[in-house]
Amino acid sequence: xxxxxxxxDPAIFHLPVERMREGYYSxxxxxxxxxVLLADDHHPRVLxxxxxxxxxxxxxxxxxxxxxxxxASDWSTLEVRALYDGxxxxxxxxxxxxxxxxxxxxxxETLYLGxxxxxxxxxxxxxxxxxxxxxxxxxxxPARHDHWLVQTGDGYAAHIAGAIGVxxxxxxxxxxxxxxxxxxxGIIAAYDGDTVLATQKFAQYMPAHVRLxxxxxxxxxxxxxxxxxxxxxxERLYGVRLDTSETLVDKSxxxxxxxxxxxxVNPQLVWNVRRALDDEGFQNVKIVVSGGFTVEKIRQxxxxxxxxxxxxxxxxLFGGQGRFDFTADVVRVDGKPCAKVGRExxxxxxxxxxx
Length: 355
What we know:
It contains 12 helices and 14 strands. With 355 residues, it is an alpha/beta fold. The protein has 2 domains: 10-121 and 322-353, nicotinate phosphoribosyltransferase (Alpha-Beta Barrel); 135-318, Aldolase class I (TIM Barrel, Alpha-Beta Barrel). The strands form 3 sheets. A 6-stranded antiparallel beta sheet has the order 13-12-1-5-3-14. Strands 7-6-11-10-9-8 form a 6-stranded parallel beta sheet. It has a two-stranded antiparallel sheet with strand order 2-4. Helix 5 crosses helix 6 and helix 10 (222-233) runs parallel beside helix 11 (267-279). The relative contact order is 0.15.
């Protein structure tokens, strides 16, 4: 069967191949198990079965395959079958099988299970946000909430899940794109708290293809700031971003308080900004919201018809309640069933041979 879509080239992952081959990043018991097999000149051909325990959208498959291709002692002795990044999977569904001499890949189990777990968590959380926001755009903004080394794979997982933008070039690198963003609070402060001036400077020095979106909550007066920027920037302004702290009430909302939670970015604040822009003829200016947005909060906004054009989502994409860990079990040895009780071989016709 021909592949449904192209897999990523293993070279794109920039793996520390020698370190991985020697077991530097692997659980020690896998490394020692391999050493025993090699010392005993014992080379059983096994079938390893990999599965997760939760409904999920799969991530890290191509990365796991790259680890096997580049770090197994002899890739040519292995036969790997796998699903694809982005595939929806059921609990306990087999997502990959590896068949070959166990000593050729025993030391890699920690590595391929780890990338599957990490990327599946990020991809699944992002997919749920994308589905809640659909057809609105979602921007992937959690880079600051985790170690920089995870950015490349996390960004790709988010891309596969449907996010329209990621915030760093590293996150966008695996599909040849670049990061997106807005005029940040820092540069507004650098221009003495003048959001209009900072946005003008961005417009002056950034290329025309860069979408000009500016944060408008620096003075906790999103309506007035949005209007001031729109009047000066005109058609160059793509959108405004509301990011009011969850401990503050925006100036425009104070007179309306009473029957809703007024802090942070709330529906009333979005409506206030939208109506103000529309009343002055700025219907083309988009509204991006961020700050504490989760699947549940996005669903509430969408069900209420709040006029949001895009959601910026951050730390919640690294959380989630599901168990996104993966397990690998030997289920056959030299062609005969041999598995831990309860972990017998489960065939999956969706798996495709990896070339």
